[in-house]
Amino acid sequence: MNLLEVKNLKVIDKEDKKEIVKGVSFKVEKNMCLGIVGESGSGKSMTAKAIVGLISSNLKIEGYAVFDENIDLFNIKKDKLRKIRGQRICMILQDAMSVFDPLYTVGYQMIETLVENKNLSKKEAKKVSIKTLEKMNINDPQEVVKKYPHQLSGGMLQRCMIALSLSMEPDIIIADEPTTALDSINQREVVEVFKRLRNTTGTSLIFISHDLGIVKYLAQDILVMNNGEQVEYGSAKDIFTNPKSHYTKYLINARLELTETFNKSVNKGEAV
Ligand SMILES: Nc1ncnc2c1ncn2[C@@H]1O[C@H](COP(=O)(O)OP(=O)(O)OP(=O)(O)O)[C@@H](O)[C@H]1O
Question: Which of 6, 9, 146, 252 is most open to solvent, judged by the fewest CB atoms within 10 Å of its CB?
Fold first, then answer.
């Protein structure tokens, strides 16, 4: 079953009529992960933001995006879209600091979000928050919920943000470069959380990254974007074994070179 179907999505600057996203089409099935890859400025974030109606007012959207077979995301009332965005489609951003309010503890914010969106009592919401933080491999969730955002490391806060999204039990999570701000150890842990997500919750995932290695590890389908265009779309297996576009070949080769340099340095015992 297609949970999300996007057809010929365009994001256009109203002023100079420039197409920032130039007609992108893809499907996300239930319990599947779509990876969107491309270099900086290729339109990955803009594609994701357009789907959930989070683009600035100088831009307009064309094409269509159907969620859960019959919800036309580009033609529903704003309050309905807001509800879907909070409850059924969750977006995880690069910078967790921008999501949490510095004036309240992380626990307070998780509980408030759950009470508002999931109709839980505060007590139930606290239980769910602690449980989901545990799932994130956070050792001492009882203590973590008492902390203010600035008292936690970037990696910890990022995991709290992912925990909050998971606790909402959405149908789909859109994760936009969720590991970029993290060091490599935290990066690996967060990627593992996403890997487990499919097996444990059945939530679908759109994972946006410029790192083809991570996307290969997580996604069954891949959309490659360059300069706002969809240059390739298909199963991860096909794209890696038989890339059709020069750009995809270039991305794969760049990735291989990086891995080889890394392996050589490790073998030589050099610091990396
Ligand atoms: N509000 C806006 N108005 C016009 N153009 C914009 C606006 N916001 C972003 N852009 C442009 O849209 C293009 C695509 O940006 P986008 O953030 O989607 O790229 P990206 O592939 O996600 O890159 P990154 O990996 O750096 O996040 C960029 O050239 C950017 O400058």
Answer: 146
Query: How far apart (Å, rounded) are the C-alpha atoms in residues 250 and 169?
Result: 37
Q: Which two tokens stand for residue 89?
A: 């489609």
H helices present in 88-208, as ranges: 106-118, 122-135, 141-144, 154-167, 184-201
Pocket test for ligand 1, best of 42, 57, 212 (most atoms within 8 A of CB): 42
173 membership: H or E segment, kind and range: strand 172-176
What is the pTM (predicted TM-score) of this model? 0.88
Q: Map tokens 């256009």 to a residue.
A: 12
pLDDT at 272 over 70: no
Q: Which residue has the tokens 């009592």?
A: 121
Burial class of 183 by CB neighbour count within 10 A (0 to 12, 13 to 18, 19+): exposed
Enumerate residues 6+ apart whose C-beta is below 8 A from 118: 87, 125, 128, 168, 169
Residues forming beta bridges with residue 24, ordered by sequence position: 9
Domains and CATH numbers, the chain: 2-266 (3.40.50.300)
Which of 263, 159, 135, 205 minimizes the C-alpha distance to 147? 159
Q: Report helix angle 106-118 to 78-87, nearest 10.
A: 120
* Region 28-56 average pLDDT: 93
Residue 18 CB less than 6 A away from ligand 1? no
pLDDT of residue 265: 61
Q: What is the mean pLDDT of residues 167-174?
A: 92
